[in-house]
């Protein structure tokens, strides 16, 4: 996590609102960049600066501010993270002050750790990943780039979640399980078997045995 400074947020939806509340740890929210159909005049007291299509439209955006892709939809968030990196923007990782994060955890650029989340020893959170409200990531877990761990989900020890995977709210992944790249795990599901890439596991309260393939 970089030291708090000036931050421009890409996006102006619900996820962007939550990220903006990181002003509580000292970030000054310069404003938001969002398409016209997603915004009004202001968002949580900070101005809308433009649509963000042309990052060179105002040279001060890159010179004076860090930029952060605060977009809930994973494919768009990843695309915007790559675009920011290509433009030479400074993209921090962000940690809510109410999260509990082990000193040995690694959090890559563009990742955000939300309020009440717990990250235990030697876990790794990839670029542009979201560890959402109240999620738990236990020791030695790996969460891939662009992945989403939804509110209240639990990754037990040594779980590996692939790039761009989605773990639904309240899901539980038991120890030593591998969840493949771009896999989807429905809310409330207990996962006790490895899931291949691009698998789709419907929401259930019962322990899963076989993933449903799209």
How is this structure best described in words?
- By secondary structure, the protein is mostly beta strands.
- The chain contains 3 helices and 25 strands.
- The protein has helices at 14-20, 60-64, 74-86, and strands spanning 6-10, 28-33, 42-43, 46-50, 66-69, 94-95, 100-101, 106-107, 112-113, 118-119, 124-125, 130-131, 136-137, 142-143, 148-149, 154-155, 160-161, 166-167, 172-173, 178-179, 184-185, 190-191, 199-201, 207-208, 212-213.
- It is globular and about 50 Å long.
CATH architecture of the largest domain: 3 Solenoid
Which regions are unreliable across 5 or more consecutive residues at pLDDT < 50? 206-214
| CATH class call of the largest domain | Mainly Beta
Secondary-structure-derived class: mainly beta
Rg from C-alpha positions? 17 Å
> What's the end-to-end separation, in Å?
37 Å
Shape, per Cα inertia axes: globular
In spatial order, strands of the major sheet run 6-9-12-15-18-21-23-25
Q: How many beta-strand elements?
A: 25
CATH superfamily assignment of the largest domain? Hexapeptide repeat proteins
The oligomerization state is single chain
Average pLDDT metric: 89
| Largest sheet: number of strands, sense, barrel closure | 8 strands, mixed
The amount of beta strand, in percent, is 25-35%
Output the CATH topology of the largest domain.
UDP N-Acetylglucosamine Acyltransferase, domain 1
Helix content: 10-25%
Q: Can you count the helices? A: 3
Order of helix and strand elements from N to C terminus: EHEEEHEHEEEEEEEEEEEEEEEEEEEE
Supply the number of structural domains. 2
